[in-house]
Design a protein that fits this description.
CATH topology: Maltoporin, Chain A
Largest sheet: 22 strands, antiparallel, barrel
Membrane topology: Multi-pass membrane protein
CATH architecture: Beta Barrel
Strand content: over 45%
Number of helices: 6
Family: Belongs to the TonB-dependent receptor family.
Number of strands: 35
Helix content: under 10%
InterPro entries: Beta-barrel_TonB, Beta-barrel_TonB_sf, Plug_dom, Plug_dom_sf, TonB-dep_rcpt-like
Distance between the termini: 58 Å
Shape: globular
Oligomer: single chain
CATH superfamily: TonB-dependent receptor, beta-barrel domain
Keywords: Cell outer membrane, Membrane, Receptor, Signal, TonB box, Transmembrane, Transmembrane beta strand, Transport
Subcellular location: Cell outer membrane
């Protein structure tokens, strides 16, 4: 049911604010940065294709599918360069495998995460924003980190993951549950972490070129290269995309029509430079890194089902930079990182606010020191580490719906301690964070977690392990600049959200080796179960009609279960795989400051109680075949559960073939999305496309 237009939560307002309050313009903007983006997205792919191979290289593109079959990896710590990654014992981290990154590389992260993780991706339809919802949390309670730096829009407090291209990132992982002590006060439900590999400085160069296309006028081009010497590493990734998105859908009158005003043009460039400052090349004990990321999306916004038409257009452009210095000594590791990010949004309606624009600027810096309390010699029973760091975040929002330039300054001081056994059988850590927001001290944010592999037995051809984990964190989120100062509708009297998050779980793994080769798994079975509980007071929620205003809900209680199961079986040269993930989430309003609002005991809007996916397929002779099926349950669209959207199922088929030679690798991929041609809406009145096809061809050169 999607009858009358309901009152909606924060994310609906965010979408509306992007279409009304946030800047965008369809015609070529006059600002120099927009002209530069237009030039780069038009000509950079051709220039790179002609010139890169002589001077650039990229990652290793000829990875074996047999070695990268694991679709996700659940571990207590992601293997990343961020020093904080070693202090997450007891937390669930899910890493997307390289084979799925390859399959989805020309798509946005919204498509990848909605089909390969239990996180609910709230998509507002074609060419509109898509946001994350971890375990019933709102979009503003979900962090997005690029190389450890938050890249949420500082005014909206959310990240539009439909603007994040999968092919730009070397590693994509998700951290479930709060880690506010480590990653900042806005990390309530979880975090999406986007990172790049640390170069090995092995002399060489390579180039990867990908062309693709598909239904509804879809065209894709990606180029990536990297050049390495003994001390230098230079990398470049660029993408270009266009689509008409003119699919057929059923309108409110039950008639089939073609979606109008839905064209898309997008492009971007991500450049990285690393320099090894070590005394001896290759030691990587002292490293200097720089990243520059520039992209632009020009989107036509199609009409919702309750609109007779649309001429809306939006331009999203962003410039992001990242610089880091690291130095490792015998027992100490020092690092300094800084990031300057600027986002430009222009919106053109033709009827309401015909040319509206907003600019957001964010500066981030972090100084850190990690120290090992154990000496290099000896055989200690436990290893002890201490990490102390001081992040600072400064944000500025300027726009036509904010009366003046509003700022937010957030310095912090964090200390965390880790203890573990040398074989990682037992790991535990504790953290404490103190933040100040515009000079006022926020509540202390403590956190503690532990993981214990309490059972482990290995025989000649088999092994069994069983691990327990638990985590407790205090959470806190200060209102965003739009929530406080947006005009009309901002509420300067909002209280910050705060509460506690607890989660626990276990992982069971069974491995059976082959009789001929004990190093290869003939059978691998893993089962992971997680339970979580979160109580948040003063939850911020947007209500209204013509004018939307944020209010505090007295308390929201979220709890539920998540499970991840995998089976892999090797039959000769063929590897079969099956994976099943599911999430059961209850997120209800327990009390309200608003009289007679009807929300008490009811599910928070747009939080499905049931959500799940499974993958089934095989790898054989360089061919990877996978069928993915997703299920999304009922989503209430009003706070009193009076209106809802029906559950939906979608099927997706992926095929990829890899042909490898010494000097090059060729990959051909094809996908059928929404195989069963399901008519569905993720968000009310925003139709999604039916069955469509995607094709890509990739050539990787090494020298």
């Amino acid at each position: 049911m999607a009858g009358r237009r309901p009152a909606a939560p924060l994310e609906v307002y965010v979408s509306r604010s992007l279409h009304v309050s946030c800047p965008a313009q369809h015609r070529r903007p006059g600002l120099p940065i927009f002209a530069t983006v237009n030039y780069l997205t038009r000509y950079a792919p051709l220039l790179l294709l002609l010139a890169c191979y002589g001077s650039l290289t990229s990652e290793t593109y000829a990875q074996s599918l047999q070695d990268t079959l694991h679709e996700v990896q659940v571990s207590d710590r992601a293997q990343v360069q961020d020093a904080r990654a070693g202090f997450t014992a007891g937390q669930q981290v899910q890493t997307i495998s390289s084979v799925y990154k390859e399959v989805y590389q020309v798509q946005s992260l919204a498509g990848l995460l909605s089909q390969q993780t239990p996180v609910f991706i709230k998509s507002y339809g074609v060419n509109s924003m898509a946001t994350l919802s971890f375990r019933g949390a709102s979009a503003a309670q979900s962090a997005v980190l690029w190389n450890g730096v938050p890249i949420l829009n500082p005014a909206l407090g959310v990240a539009d993951i439909s603007l994040l291209n999968t092919g730009l990132f070397d590693r994509i992982s998700l951290q479930y549950g709060s880690a506010a002590a480590l990653y900042g006060s806005g990390n309530v439900g979880g975090a999406l972490m986007l990172e790049r590999n640390v170069p090995d400085f092995s002399p060489g160069r390579s180039l990867r070129a990908t062309i693709g296309g598909g239904s509804f006028g879809r065209r894709d081009l990606q180029l990536a290269g990297q050049w390495q010497q003994r001390r230098w590493s230079v990398g470049l990734k660029t993408f270009y995309q266009q689509a008409a998105n003119d699919f057929n859908y059923i309108n409110n009158l039950g008639q089939e029509e073609r979606l109008p005003n839905a064209r898309l043009k997008a492009g971007g460039v991500l450049a990285s430079v690393d320099y090894d400052l070590s005394r001896r090349p290759g030691d990587k004990t002292e490293l200097l890194s720089l990243d520059l990321w520039f992209q632009q999306y020009r989107r036509e916004i199609p009409p919702a089902l309750f609109e007779s038409g649309s001429v809306k257009r939006q331009t999203d452009a962003s410039f992001r930079s990242f610089a880091e210095w690291q130095k490792t000594l015998d027992r100490s590791h020092f690092y300094v990182r800084a990031s300057y990010n600027r986002e430009f949004l222009r919106y053109q309606d033709g009827v309401v606010l015909p040319d509206n624009k907003n600019n957001m600027t964010q500066y981030y810096q972090e100084l850190g020191w990690k120290y090992s309390l154990n000496k290099a010699s000896g055989n200690p029973a436990f290893l002890h580490e201490l990490l102390v760091f001081s992040p600072l975040q400064f944000a500025v929002a300027e726009g036509e719906n904010i009366s003046k330039s509003e700022t937010q300054l957030r310095p912090a001081l964090v200390a965390t301690y880790s203890i573990r056994t040398p074989n990682d059988k037992l790991k535990a850590n504790a953290a404490l964070r103190q933040e100040w927001i515009n000079g006022d001290a926020a509540p202390l944010l403590p956190g503690i977690g532990a993981a214990w592999r309490f059972f482990e037995k290995t025989r000649q051809l088999s092994s069994v392990s069983w691990q327990l984990r638990a985590n407790v964190q205090r959470t806190y989120r200060f209102p965003t600049l739009n929530e406080l100062y947006y005009f009309p509708g901002g509420n300067k009297d909002l209280k910050p959200e705060q509460g506690w998050n607890q989660d626990a779980g276990y992982t069971f793994t069974f491995r059976l080796a082959g009789a001929a080769d004990a190093t290869r798994s003939r059978l691998l079975f893993s089962h992971d179960l997680a339970a979580f509980n979160r109580n948040i007071k003063d939850w911020i929620y947007w209500l209204g009609g013509a004018i939307w205003t944020p209010y505090n809900i007295a308390e929201v209680h979220s709890r539920g279960l998540e499970t991840d199961n995998k089976i892999e079986y090797l039959a000769g040269s063929c590897k079969l795989h099956f994976g099943l993930r599911s999430a059961y989430v209850i997120s209800t309003s327990e009390a309200s400051y608003l009289p007679n609002d009807g929300s008490k005991g009811k599910q928070v809007p747009y939080v499905p109680r049931y959500n799940g996916q499974f993958n089934l397929g095989f790898t054989w002779a360089g061919c990877f075949v996978n069928y993915n099926h997703t299920y999304t349950g009922y989503r209430f669209t009003t706070i009193d559960e009076s209106q809802f959207l029906e559950p939906y199922n979608t099927g997706n088929l992926q095929v990829m073939y890899t042909f490898t030679r010494a000097a090059y690798t060729l990959k051909a991929a094809a996908q059928v999305q929404n195989l069963w041609n399901t008519a569905y809406e993720v968000v009310s009145a925003r139709p999604m496309p039916g069955r469509y096809f995607l094709f890509s061809l990739q050539l990787g050169l090494k020298g």
